[in-house]
Amino acid sequence: MSNLRLLNETTISSSTSALSITDVFSADFDIYKIVASGILLVGTTQTNLSMRLLNTSGSVLTSNYDYATLECNANTSFTESRSTSATLWQNFFGKDDGAEGSSATIYVFNPYSSSSYTFALSQSAGDNGTALTMYKSIGVYHQTESIGGFQLLETATRPFDEGSIKTYGLRVDT
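and the corresponding C-alpha cells:
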C-alpha cells in the first residue's frame, strides 16, 4: 500500500524556456512522483522537454547526468538513445510541436540523500511533429549531492506557456 502527499502544484501561465520548482525534495520522503500535463509550446516546431535537477540552494546542476530512452513513435520504428555524459535528462517531460501538448509521469528516488546517487524513471508522451510519440526513460545523476528541486526546460529556444506540474511525496507501507 502506498500513500501520496501533494507537496507542490505549479501552473504554467506565462511564456518561459525554463521552469524551476525548488524546495520540494526533503528528508521526509525517499520517493517522489512528478505529474506534468498539458505542457504546450509557443509555435509549431517540435521541441524536447527535458529535466535538470536543482541543489538545495536552488542552483541548476548542468553535468553528471546519464540516461537511456526508448522512443516509441506511432508513425515510424522505435529508437533508443542514451548518454553517459549529458547536461540534462532529455525528453523526461516528452516532446511537443505546439498543438497537442506533452504530459509525463516521473519518479525520482533518493534526491535529498547526500550519500547516494539520484535515480529517476519517466514515461512521457507528446507529438514528434507528425504523430504521437511516447518515451520510456531511466536516468541517474551520478554525483552524491543533496537535491532540493527540479527544472523543466525546452532545448530549442521555443518557450512553453501552458501546463500543470504536481509533485508528490510517496510513502510505501511495508
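(Above: one complete record from the training split.) Residues 51 and 89 are 5 Å apart (CA to CA).
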